[in-house]
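Our preliminary data section would be incomplete without showing what the modeling component actually yields. Below, a chain of 169 amino acids is followed by its predicted structure, encoded as tokens that our downstream tools consume directly.
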Amino acid sequence: MSGARRLFVGIGNPLRGDDAAGLLAARALRELGPEGVEVAELEGEPVGLIEAWRGAEAVVVADAVACGGEPGEVHRIDAAEGSLPAALAGSSTHAMGLAEAVELARALDRLPARLLVYGIEASRFEVGTAPAAAVRAAAERVAAAAAGELAPGGTLEARHVFGDSRPGP
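Predicted structure:
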């Protein structure tokens, strides 16, 4: 996979508290600087997301979710293997969420060969609030895990972990 395009996408809104979780992970990953990994920040619009990962062999996406866990809890899902869990579908803070974008891409045969999703549990989405400390810490953990998975020689192995607060290879 070392010659293939590798991409990390952080999704969120920087003005809505914990909704910035994916963006924080993207910024943390940029600082880690894994070789050959592109980093993008998006607001979560499905067509833009599908377009961003066009031509990428391996993609990791991070986004805030609200499906009943503790703030900062991390869900890691291999979305190339199957649909996102029902608990995450519809839990996005965006009009049309990540789960819908993944399924739309799957239906259009535009899903990357390897697609991992990190959902970071969030609870505060008010305009003008700062992300919670637990969410900021989770974004750092997700960035470190993604750096290992997307780096040359990274595994991106197929494993399905839902509700694991310890992301990483």
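The helical segments are 21-32, 46-52, 98-107, 133-150. The beta strands are 6-11, 37-42, 58-65, 74-78, 114-121. Preliminary results of this kind motivate Aim 1 of the renewal.
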